[in-house]
Amino acid sequence: MATTAAYGRSVSGAPPRAAADLKRAIERGLLFLLTASSFIAFVEPSPYELIFAGVLAFFLATGGLRVRPSILPLAFCLIVFSIGGFISLAPFLDESESVMFTLVSAYLSLTSLFFAMLLRIDAPGRIEALRNGYVIAGVAASIAGIIGFFNIGGLGEILTRYDRAAGTFKDPNVLGTFVILPLVYLVHSILTTRLRVWSVAAGAIIVFGGVFLSFSRGAWGHAFGSLALMTVLTFIANREARVRRRIIVMTMVGLTSITGAFAAVLSLNSVERTFENRATFEQSYDLGEQGRFGNQLASIPMLMERPNGFGPLRFRFFFAEDAHNVYINAFASYGWLGGFSYLVLIILTMSIGWRLVCADFSLRGHAIVIWSTLFVEILQGFQIDTDHWRHFWLMLGLIWGMLPVLRSALLPLAPGRHLS
After folding, report:
1. What DSSP string runs through 305-352?
2. For 199-221, what is the mean pLDDT?
3. Is the peptide bond before 182 cis (omega within 30 degrees of 0)?
4. Which of 118, 117, 105, 134 is closest to 34 using CA atoms?
């Protein structure tokens, strides 16, 4: 009787299991589609925004998100950050550009919170879906940038800006930084696995071409710093001698290959001219009292006297151009409330990121790749505004989302608890 009853429960439970598997497959497919569409950024609203609205609605309707106490500080900082932005916006409600800027900031905060809540269920499958979609987006964006720079098919005018590869983005700087996470993921795969190494290497070469031809000094430094940090952290995380030897060998092969490719590409006149113009640590617009860095320093005492900052996008009304420093812009566009909440958010994120990469848990490989990229991008914020980069908020949300996964992995080892 007991056996028969158990069998009956198994049979009756089969349809729910099949439905759960189908739901999981749909969730992963939607997440893949979301990041795969993110390379199309020259139209507004972009496909990413439209798809995100549908994905968010689906996950909310099906109970696919979980709020854990560990992400409440993230939610608090994002809410206060947005409130600061709306308070600073209040005197400028008649300026449509300022209104849209503040609404986009609030929307991006929402996306970050979504990604933080995402990983409490099916974390490995969901983050792999996001990764695979983003890698495809990175390759597609880089191909578009390469086509534009070399004016293949007469598309140079559409896919370039300022004689630099922009691809499907409005700004070469954004293209250059957008494709760094896929690049780091691809190189990480080369260092740690032998599977499909040639196809992965081909993808890495294409994405590296996108970074290089964007001729963004920030993106170059970002890519180098992220790859170097990822390589060191990956070497430390892997204790097997075989894997460590592979990391050393593939790193040397990669550096040699990049040097050779670099020399070959610079033999092209169009590349050489642009490279000579861009390959300096400082441009003319950076220097002097009226340069980028001079404006940033001059703005600090002014912002100390203005609790609501200058207002959204109004730094340019006081100086010749935008702040090009996300931390100064946080106080300028979001006031003291938004500025301090942003600083607290970054400090907390840095604490969590380093904790993740130092811990041995199921998502450590993802943590190393994402944190290596995000940490350098946090540093890059001192020379460019990153608060409206969608991939920044994606990475930030995923770092916070991995914290509950880490705590769940460590929970059975806590004193006073027993494995069931």
Report:
1. T-TT-S-TT-HHHHSSS----HHHHHHHHHHHHHHHHHHHHHHHHHHH
2. 94
3. no
4. 134
DSSP three-state, residue 151: coil
Q: pTM of the full predicted structure?
A: 0.91
Same domain? 47 vs 171:
yes
Paired strand residues for 160: 165
**Of the candidates 112, 129, 145, 83, the residue with the CA atom closest to the CA atom of residue 340:** 83
Reported as a pLDDT band with limits 50, 70 and 90, residue 15 is low
Residue 165 phi/psi, 5-degree rounding, is -65, 125
Residues 155 and 145: their CA atoms lie apart, in Å, by 10
* Alpha-carbon separation of residue 119 from 58, 66, 161, 263, 397 (angstroms): 15, 8, 37, 43, 10
For the residues 305-327, what does the mean pLDDT come to? 91
CA distance 337 to 308: 8
Q: Record the tokens describing residue 176, joined without a space.
A: 């250059």
Question: For the purposes of burial, counting CB atoms within 10 Å of the CB of 38, is it exposed (0-12), middle (13-18) or buried (19 or more)?
Answer: buried
206 and 297 in a single domain? The answer is no
User: Do 236 and 160 belong together in one domain?
Assistant: yes
Per the structure, the complete domain to which residue 207 belongs is given by: 28-64+119-187+195-244
Instruction: Copy the structure tokens of residue 292.
Output: 């980028």
- The answer to whether position 9 is within a domain reads no
Using DSSP, state whether 219 is helix, strand or coil.
helix
Is 38 within 8 Å of 137 (Cβ atoms)?
yes
Pairing state between β 160-161 and 164-165: antiparallel
Average pLDDT over every residue of 80-101: 96
Q: Per-residue pLDDT averaged across 140-150, rounded? A: 96
Query: Do residues 332 and 299 make contact, with C-beta atoms less than 8 angstroms apart?
Result: yes
Residues 237-257 have pLDDT tens digits of: 998 999 999 999 999 998 998
At residue 160, the 3 state secondary structure works out as strand
What the block records as the tokens of 397 is 């949300």
**Does residue 409 contact residue 361 with C-beta atoms inside 8 Å?**
yes
Position 379, amino acid:
L
174 and 316 assigned to the same domain: no
73 and 52 in one domain? no
Residues 88 and 236 in one domain: no
Are residue 302 and residue 337 in the same domain, yes or no? yes
Number of domains present in the structure of the chain: 2
Q: Is residue 15 part of a domain?
A: no
CA dihedral sign, ordered 209, 373, 138, 251: positive
User: Which residue in this structure is represented by tokens 């209040």?
Assistant: 90
